[in-house]
Amino acid sequence: MKKKNEATKHKVTNKAAGQLAKAPRPETSVSPPSHSFPVIAMAASVGGLNALSVILGGLPADFPAAIAIVMHLSPDHKSILAEILNRRTHLRVTQAHTGDILCPSRVFIAPPNHHLFVAEGGRLKLSSAAAEKVHYARPSAEPLFASVAAVYQQDAIAVVLTGGDGDGSFGVQIIKDKGGKVIAQDRPTSQDFSMPETSIKTGDVDFILPLDRIAAKLIALTGAGRGSKKGRTTTIRK
What is the pLDDT of residues 183-223, one digit of tens each? Predict the structure, then answer.
């Protein structure tokens, strides 16, 4: 199953990558750390605000990983997702701009109508607003997951949350190919189980967790659990 969609998953991520914004807005207030750290790529759609609020709210202020988030948002309105989440977590949450640099205890959210990529050194890049949609979405999880996997490899963690259209299912395979870990939200706590279910069906999800257990798992994985071998898929029930 892992290799079945190889050509398709690279096609969708490469097309989006070829349409990066030509006029980036840099934000240079953060310098890249001198050492490696885990990077968590999250994707959500329907029900995502609640899911992200619960997870980010459960993480400590000194959380030793960077977080990049894609959520399917309407391109017709200014997003206040970062402002809302910033009030619900100890971490600093901002909307991503080209030129931002990933660092621990920071959360970056893709703006509406732009795919989000991570380049060497943890530098963020946004696609143009004319970039091709993936799974009917822009931003899509696929470019984010694929680029995080390429740069951070075994230090990459994908989290697929409630939402529709199967977004992220190609990206989780790339994360696993590079030695990273994958978490999917379980059916009972998902408002729409399509996104998690499609990723689970790839066979590359390590943990299927209820929403209120995901933060604890991320804390564990970014502490002593880094670099561990791929294990069996685990389902934890309430």
Answer: 999 999 999 999 999 999 999 999 999 999 999 999 999 98
Token look-up 């696609």 returns 127
128 is annotated as an active-site residue: no
Say which of 45, 147, 190, 199 is annotated catalytic.
45
Is 72 designated active site? Answer: yes
Q: What's the total number of domains in the chain?
A: 1
**CATH code (residue 28):** 3.40.50.180
- How crowded is residue 19: how many other Cβ atoms within 10 Å of its Cβ? 17
User: 72, 114, 115, 135: which is the annotated catalytic residue?
Assistant: 72
Q: Is residue 233 part of a domain?
A: no
Are the C-beta atoms of residues 48 and 194 closer than 8 Å to each other? no
Strand partners, 125: 117
DSSP structure string for 52-96: HHHHHHTS-TT-SSEEEEEE---TTS---HHHHHHTS-SSEEEE-
Q: Is 198 left (phi over 0), alpha (psi -120 to 50) or beta?
A: alpha
Q: Which of 155, 167, 186, 204 is catalytic?
A: 167
pTM to 2 decimals? Answer: 0.81
Residue 45 known to be catalytic: yes
Are the C-beta atoms of residues 146 and 8 closer than 8 Å to each other?
Answer: no
198 or 18: which carries more pLDDT confidence? 198
